[in-house]
């Protein structure tokens, strides 16, 4: 007798392909945003050589350097993960660990940049292009944080709703109604 919790190979491959496609889309958007920011930062730092060195110019330089490192690491990780013979739990955990570190850094750096932008009024006049770029980067990052938070909340509600529906269907099946099938069963919720 087949275990009802076993996932047929067809569904396993389909879920793997969806997961991989979503990871590639997310990484591509991430890389695109960082490359855009890097190009804008380099152009503005090259054009505007004002006397305002600290903190806004320093924030931009460090942000650009770490974005370059992060983008290169993302590309390397994506290339390695796309190779099927390297697909393993260790690689996936390293991938997740890397993104956790990068997210923690960018959250911290965004908060620090917010404090610096709103505390230092001298650079707004002297280094106007850089100041506007930081405000734009911060605004985009805050929008991304809000969207990710909303997506996390929606995902949590979705998972809880699926579990409640599944539990309800299991109770109905146990009561003797053999015609009801558990159509909401999702193997990833176990």
From TrEMBL:
Keywords: Membrane, Transmembrane, Transmembrane helix. The keyword Transmembrane applies. The keyword Transmembrane helix applies. The chain crosses the membrane at residues 24-47, 59-81, 93-119, 131-162. This is MARVEL domain-containing protein. The lineage of its organism: Eukaryota, Sar, Alveolata, Ciliophora, Postciliodesmatophora.
